[in-house]
Amino acid sequence: MLDLNLELRQGPFTLQGPLTLDQPVTGLFGPSGCGKSTLLRAIAGLARPQTGHITLNGEVLFDAQRGIHLPPHHRRVGLVFQDSQLFPHLSVEHNLLYGFKRLSPKQRRFTLAQILDLLDISHLLQRRPRHLSGGERQRVALGRTLLASPRLLLLDEPLAALDEGRKQQILPFLRRVRDELRLPMLYVSHAINEILYLTPHLAVMEQGRILGQGPFLEVIRQDHILGLARSLGLENVLQVTVSRHEPDIGCTTVHYDYHELHLPLSALPLGTPTWIALRATDVALARQPVTEITIQNQVPGRILDLRRVADRIVAEVDIGVPILAEITVKAVHDLRLAEGDTVYCLFKARAWHYLGAA
Amino acid sequence: MWSSLQLTPEELSALGLSLKVGLWCTALVAGPGILLGWLLARVQFTGKAIVDGLIHLPLVLPPVVPGYLLLLLLGKQGPLGHWLYDMWGITLVFTWQGAVVASAVMALPLMVRAVRLAVSLVEPRLEDAARTLGAGPLRVWLTITLPLAAPGILTGLVLAFARSLGEFGATVTFVGNVAGETRTLPLAIYTYTQIPGADGPALRLVIISILLALAALWLSELGSRRVERLLGK
Question: What domain of life (chain A) (predicted)?
Fold first, then answer.
């Protein structure tokens, strides 16, 4: 599908790295200002790298050595902007048809009716963009790009300008695009829950570099990405399923494998697979189960590894899945912890947070 | 002095000439003004500062200077004027066409400035969006840049027209003050003020000038409101 390796310098900023998209949807994740948008602009042809190449389905879009730089209007790569960029002087209908009407009927992959139905925007056709809400604008922008029949859909933080409620309204539409249109997508966000809602495959960027890519759990466990994961509180991420809610005691119980965990009350439907995360500093270890304590989760496991990192120790404990616990050197000495020991991992229910449905 | 509201033939001729010169000047300035304004707003090229300076010179020079330079360049003996006469039999000196050229030179910087500002206010990412939707550079220009800059272009055209109505120095220097040919309203007013006892006719032309200017402003206001509605503002 998409394969690139490039270097693009813009003033003091350098974007570089290899990236291969071979999944239906790949999330591009990284903190704000790390170069995600610039990468998308390079793929779309709006920015020209100094070196490297970009190929899509075997076609060369860019090759510095051979002097190839296909202009954006010949790439058929769709780009949805964070702030929609609808044409203010055109109605919604003419915005939607802007790319569509320039395609030969053979190139058109979708019909207007199909897109209107998919995104639920039929009632907006005659309106001007300024009369649309933020969520409506993004749906129209998405529809406009889809109707241009791109071979690859680039989404540049399409939800970042929306409030939480609106985000939850738009995300299902993106899932429908994924499932019904089968269009390869690169979804850029600094919100991991949005990405995980659409795909477990992601590439991670930091300061202009693509640090790695692959399935979520594998990627964030890579040593050079762990620092970033740590700064985002993503050292421990589990995929669990919701088993029951107990509103009267403010508790939701989830399970993974045969283990149960007690979490803060959530509104997720029963049986929903969901991602939950926990900071390594929020994990305590004990030799024995502790009674008379408010901590709700005590899960037995085996210490796989004790690694000294600066002034602290990162313990990796197998509780069915590997869990990282950050503890002091003193604690390890006091308990005489060693690799292979059995310990209990203590998690406060409220220390877990939900990353969103998987 | 108000004996008659009927315009005399001379007054009518001055008014008609002003309108004719103004409209032709506006038409002449439109194309180059839009292109140059866009060029200065969006394209980086070597010598941009020089082009920019040349266009704006008439705005800061005393109008007689461009008028005199036009005379040197386009007069019968001037290099370009000579050629125009030999090749096409065109004479600009002492003709209303020459007055159009003089007005256009003076009006161009105003047009260019208005267009440049309008184009620079068009969000470049709207053009980017159009490009990713499959529109080539010319189509982006025609369907996005130009329509969105339309209010500024309209303002530029009105300014050019108004500048032409008021043009005096460059015109009188380049094409003289020939009744019925180059004597536009300002030149006619000036002529009357030089004749003892002709305050009445001068004042009548002053009032006509004011009414004309008000009408132009009102029309442009109407036009820009219409354009803004079309742009969805």
Answer: Bacteria
Which among A72, A103, A129 has the least Cβ separation from residue B131?
A72
Residue written as token pair 């993974």: A256
Question: Which of B125, B139, B232 is facing A129, going by the closest CB pair?
Answer: B232
**Across the interface, do B133 and A98 touch by the CB < 8 Å criterion?**
yes
H/E stretch holding B169 reads helix B169-175
Can you tell me the distance from the alpha carbon of A214 to that of A23, in angstroms, rounded to the nearest whole number? 10
Sign of the alpha-carbon dihedral angle for B160, B163, B165, B167: negative
Instruction: Give the domain A2-231 fold.
Output: Rossmann fold (3.40.50)
The alpha carbon of residue A157 is apart from the nearest alpha carbon of chain B, in Å, by 15
**Cβ proximity of A290 and A334 under 8 Å:** no
Domain holding B136: CATH number? 1.10.3720.10
Choose among B125, B136, B232: nearest Cβ to A81. Answer: B125
What are the average pLDDT values for consecutive 10-residue runs of chain B, which has 233 residues? 67 89 95 94 90 91 92 86 83 89 94 94 94 94 93 90 90 88 90 86 88 86 80 64
CB contact under 8 A, A75 and B132: yes
ipTM, two decimals: 0.80
CATH number of A236-357: 2.40.50.100
Chain A nearest-CA distance from B140, in A, is 10
Question: Is residue B46 one of the residues assigned to a domain?
Answer: yes
